[in-house]
Amino acid sequence: MAIRSVIIAATALLGAAANAQVVGTPFGFGAATTGGGDATPAAPADTAELTEWLADDEPRVILIDKEFNFLGDVCTDCECCIPDSNTCGDAGQNAIEVGIGWCGDYPTTTCTYDNAGLDGLDVGPNKSIVGVGDAGVLRGKGLRIHGTENVIVQNIHITELNPQYIWGGDAISLDGADKVWIDHVKISLVGRQMFVTGYESSGSVTFSNNELDGTTDWSASCDGHHYWTILALGENDKVTFANNYIHTTSGRAPKVGAPSFWHVYNNYWSDNTGHAFDVEESGTNVFIEGNVFEDINSAYNGDGTGAIFAVDSDSEATCSSALGRTCIANSLTSSEYTAVADESVLSAFPADEEGDVTIMAVEEVAAYVLANAGIGKLSSSGSTSGGSSSAAAVTPTSSVPVIPTSTPLVYPTPTPPAFETHVIQPEPEASSTAVPAPAPSGAASQGSSSGSSHPPGTCKARRSHKKRARRSH
């Protein structure tokens, strides 16, 4: 009887794994992504096999049917520093000394961290990485999608990348990638960025139905909220950012710092003690519609020179006229906001490239996102995974609290924290095809885990071989 029970259980598990596949189809800019296509789904036996399968050139559907734990290679009493941002001791983030001069004159200290988080798992072309049920976990290591194309990541949880430390690791890093769909992924407890794009263009990306959970015991803003949420540095990136749940953060949600286009709709921001959008560089276009902001200190930080069109009750008509379809106003509750409606964003919108998308009425967004975003919720979101459709966008009802513009609020302008200070630095020559790192001094700078021969979080020093000084990130 015991043997029979084991056989039945094993058969059920194998059946579930065999039936596990990508659910739904991508939409938006990443609509052409097919991942591993119709390759036979298979589950790697261990971390070594997972690492090998991810990196090779074979089309694969890789099932993440359990936790893959990469922790254990510990650096004990290693060099770290105490940045000015850490005013709260063990409740803040110290920084790992990664050899680029970032720590500068900050006081030195020692720390113990896991080496696994410092470099992500390399992902080759034509891969579908699919979690089974709610069992798929990558612990201690993120994904590095660099110089490749046609990758789907769906229904997994990436967690525990040295959350105590700045430079501890990025969860998902893109650089020079194309056709990428990140869907129903949960990210928590990371030291650096939850999602980052490097300087090389990632041309067609959809980031949908994900949960970015910033809850932490080690906060750069010293308030239990994660600061390093999303950093987008890719020139000419085209990103559809839809149906995501971003909560318990304090900044960079997202920071878009290079000429690119982001269409941001039907997301739910909740509990942000700093700012959500930071649109830094001229030539950047961010189109924001049908989102919910709840308890956000500042929807936009107001310091950047990039262009934003955030739909509100006064700009709906302008938007609809320009695009030839209904635009959906955003909704704010207990959140600071100022009207931003740069019409150049609408002129720059590559709608033909994004294709048809369905934008739900804003009063439906919070409930939908809470029910569907993150791991283990594929069945609840239906076959369209947030959905591509030719249906017209739905006009919000009058009962929805849309953004007012008759008496716009003014976002606060506090002195920037130490870890957000920009430093102009000359760029060194690249020593390899990997992303080279600048050497900022003193003030903390930010970036992406670009290039295996350089530390995570470092910026690439050259863009299209142009030698010039630029802001370090």
TrEMBL record:
GO cellular component, one term: extracellular region
Pfam hit, one: Pectate_lyase_4
Xref: SUPFAM superfamilies: Pectin lyase-like (SSF51126)
Chain intervals with Basic residues compositional bias: 460-473
Domain Pectate lyase: 98-299
Span list, region Disordered: 379-473
Keyword annotations from UniProtKB, A to Z: Carbohydrate metabolism, Cell wall biogenesis/degradation, Disulfide bond, Glycoprotein, Lyase, Polysaccharide degradation, Secreted, Signal
Leading EC class: lyase
Signal peptide: 1-20
Subcellular location: Secreted
EC number, UniProt record: 4.2.2.10
Single biological process term from Gene Ontology: cell wall organization
Domain of life according to the entry: Eukaryota
Catalytic activity as recorded in UniProt: Eliminative cleavage of (1->4)-alpha-D-galacturonan methyl ester to give oligosaccharides with 4-deoxy-6-O-methyl-alpha-D-galact-4-enuronosyl groups at their non-reducing ends
Family: Belongs to the polysaccharide lyase 1 family.
Protein name in the entry: pectin lyase
Protein's organism: Aspergillus mulundensis
